[in-house]
Amino acid sequence: MYLLQKSLFSFEEWLEIEPSERRHLFFRALDLAPYAAKLRSGSPQGAKPISREAILRALLAAPMEGISTFTQLHQRLEADLRFRYQCGFRLDEGAPSISTLSRVFKAMVDKGLAKSLFVDLVRQCKEAGIIDGNHLAIDSTAIGAYEKKQPKSRIQETGNANWGAKYDTFGNKLSWFGYKVHLAVDTVSELPVALDVTPANVYDGEMAIPLMKEIHERNWRFQFVMMDAGYDQVKNYEAARQYGAQAIIALNKRGEKEPPVGIASDGTPRCSMGYGMVYWGADGEQLKFRCPHAVGKVDCPLGMAACSDSNYGMVIKKRIGEDVRRYSNPHRNTRRWKELYRERTSVERCHSRLKERLTMNDAHVRGIQKVTTHVYINAVVLLASALAVSAAKRKKESA
Question: Which of 134, 280, 138, 260 lies closest to 204 in space, CA to CA?
């Protein structure tokens, strides 16, 4: 049986480290030189530019410091010499201007550097054993837009901010103008391994397949992927199977049709007396169910004889491929299935850290490309922090 290993990283413990020491560990875990090289101008003319690696460091440190605008970052670099020095700027030079910070951020957007750095750090975390990658959880979260709200009738399909709606746990409808961040998270480390940003009106169920595909294309093999009822579509189960995994998804009962005769809504066969059969394990694609009277779960007035001549009782076998939505290994609603589904909360905690501990929900840039880069930068902070903690632990153990 697969046992979840204890996570090597706690973001809450990381935040308890003294800020100056935390920045030191954070920057030491990052090799930004290859990315900074792509931000440098190729022209030999003009004044010597401010270090692009230092600006990149400052942009990455900003979410960790609760800084969400270029103005705030410029002011912090001007006023805090230690912060400026740790970011790599020369102290005999002034802090980069707001426009310079904005231009470098725009260059990151145009060159896709934030995503490249994110993917590289995910790989490093997996190689270091921080990310397990065998169990994944997928979900989305809402973020607001730093853009003027418009009525639905005037919104054009530009791919930028739009109106979204969802229901809370009490059934209340909540609306917002902005975007959705779709995350795939490793359930052991609770770190993001793939993400996408869409306008808020994009349906959650449409984004599971692109996330699974991206992870699969990195030559990853994952065993289980957990999702809530918003992803309860046959195509998502089929996609997970295509990638060699089992989807663990809650059933969406809204608009649910009656299940086939003799089958409960969760896929459990019923005997001729209407009792639910008892799940008795799986052999690969084949699920086995036994007579509930034979295993002492019910006291059937007909006993076993009415259904089977065997002392073992009636047995029904179902192949997962018959109905990938209802059948799974482990069988839906068994103890093991519920244990796996509970791992889905890891993606909720990851969303919470990005929004409440960092600045993902405080984007001060406009347009989906810039917002996506902003989200990637916040995700990079989580990954780089995990690498920093891991490196510090290894150094302490070897001392």
Answer: 138
Q: Which two tokens stand for residue 384?
A: 């780089």
**Given CA atoms 290, 296, 299, 302 in this order, what sign does their dihedral have?**
positive
Scored b (16 or more CB within 10 A) or e, 110-131 reads eeebbbebbbbbbebbbeeebb
Strand pairing category for 135-144 and 162-167: unpaired
**What is the structure's pLDDT at 206?**
95
Question: What would the mean pLDDT of 258-273 be, rounded to a whole number?
Answer: 85
216: how many CB neighbours lie within 10 A of its CB? 18
Residues 324 and 234 sit within 8 Å (Cβ to Cβ): yes
Q: How far are the Cα atoms of 96, 123, 194 from residue 89, in angstroms, in the given order? A: 9, 29, 32
User: How far lies 32's CA from each of 85, 91, 113, 193, 381, in Å?
Assistant: 16, 20, 11, 20, 13
Number of CB atoms found within 10 A of residue 301's CB:
8
50: tokens are 């401010």
Please count the other Cβ atoms lying within 10 Å of the Cβ belonging to residue 28: 13
What span, in angstroms and rounded, lies between the C-alpha atoms of 141 and 97? 33
C-alpha 314: how far from chain center: 43
Question: What does the DSSP 8-state code read for residue 31?
Answer: -
pTM: 0.91
**Amino acid symbol at 234:** V
Match 């308890």 to its residue by tokens: 16
Helix axes 368-398, 113-127, angle to 10 degrees: 30
Instruction: At 104, list the tokens.
Output: 């470098």
Which has the closest alpha carbon to 353: 64, 119, 30, 135?
64
Say whether 385 sits in a helix, a strand or coil: helix
Nearest to 179 by CA among 156, 195, 202: 202
Please choose, from the candidates 315, 219, 318, the residue with its C-alpha nearest in 3D space to the C-alpha of residue 263: 318
Q: pLDDT for 186-205, tens place per residue?
A: 999 999 999 999 999 999 99
Q: What is the per-residue pLDDT across 270-294, written as a single tens digit (0 to 9) for each? A: 988 888 999 999 988 999 999 889 8
- Within a 13 Å sphere around the CA of 32, how many CA atoms are in the beta-carbon half? 26
Rounded distance, CA 204 to CA 125, Å?
A: 27
pLDDT tens digits along 49-76: 789 999 999 999 999 999 999 999 999 9
Type and span of the H or E element at 285: none
